[in-house]
Amino acid sequence: MRIARKRPDHVVPEYSLTGDLLSFRRCARQYRYQNGSALPPSRPVQLWYGEFIHGLLENVYRLWKSKGGLPFPLPYERLSMSEPIEEPPADLDEFDLRNLGWPVEESLLNQNKRARSRKARLAAYRRAEAAVNMLGPHLFPLIAEAEERVIGTRDIPGAIASEHRAEKYALTGVIDVLTEIELGSAHTDNLIRQAVQAQCPDLAGEFEVIVDYKGTRRPDTNTSEWRDGEWQVQTYAWLRHEQRRSRRVAAGILIYINELAPGEGDLLALKAALSKGRTDVGPALDSDRRMLENWRPGARADFSHGFLFSRAVRVIPVNDASIEEATGAFDDTVRSIEECVRREDQAVSILQTWLDDCLDGKTCAACDFRYFCEGYQRNGNTIGEEDRIEDEI
Length: 393
Ligand code: SF4
Known about the structure:
Elements: E1 14-16, H1 17-26, H2 28-37, H3 45-67, H4 97-110, H5 118-139, E2 143-155, E3 168-182, H6 191-199, E4 206-214, H7 224-243, E5 249-256, H8 264-275, H9 286-294, H10 305-312, E6 313-317, H11 320-345, H12 350-353, H13 361-365, H14 374-378, H15 386-391
Parallel strand pairs: 1-3, 4-5
Antiparallel strand pairs: 2-3, 3-4, 5-6
């Protein structure tokens, strides 16, 4: 009797869309150091801000759902620079943003995650207030699922069993919000409905829209961040279709939270982007245009809600061709990671294998590895200047 030889264990590596693929695309070397050593970043500034905004929005949505509504706009007793990081005063309104934000802060503190500075904490609350009060009344009524986990299996291009450790990979993601929109039933004054209709005028019937919050400004249209954001929602759409095919995903929405309450750095970047033709949304009203032209650092900027909303919300139509392009690009990213893993395994050094190819100065400024990385200064940063940059995040 012939007994089959034991086959080697089959490997299906798991890749998270944001934690692995977008991280690798941002900087291969930072990705390798963070993932290979399994150490959390020592200065998780962007991590704290993003998680705080996500956590607060989810908490407020769940409260809105359990109570059948909330009295928007919710109050916010402004934090001052001198206030310690502790439970808010007992006499605050129960729906004050500080009361709703404190459990999120507390949970992050328990994970040893805190804001980089008091200024950064104040900015986070200011933006959270804008996000809850400007988005909540329009977005919450459309939400079908929050924090939806999705997974699918894909081929690694060009991988063959005899040479590579895997021919397939598992792709995972967490969709912030899934909405089910029937255009005929959503209120005509719903700003999310209006934004989707403006970009996808031929839509009819029921469909899903994927929403992802970004704790950043709206990227310039010539950046990899702009393109990667689009590919991210297209790939979420593919993952969603793998799970349940009853409703098609018609669009994705990226919400750039900073745009709802822009800081000085955001406004300077906006002025520069407009002057160079690198952004797709500028002020439509004369009053907003004059405000931006005359604005100088240190001055107030009271833009119309319409302008802030149009900068914050980016609707991305989804179809079969756009999904194929995006998923193909991420397949190629997995192939690149697998190639780096293979080369490092063959004793090629980390520095030769995982390139310091980050193009974003702020990512470098918050990177734990900047002191021994040439990419940091190549991106226009100077050792000792990081705090100035990080405070603006
Ligand atoms: S300093 Fe910049 S280029 Fe260097 S590893 Fe960090 S993110 Fe990458």
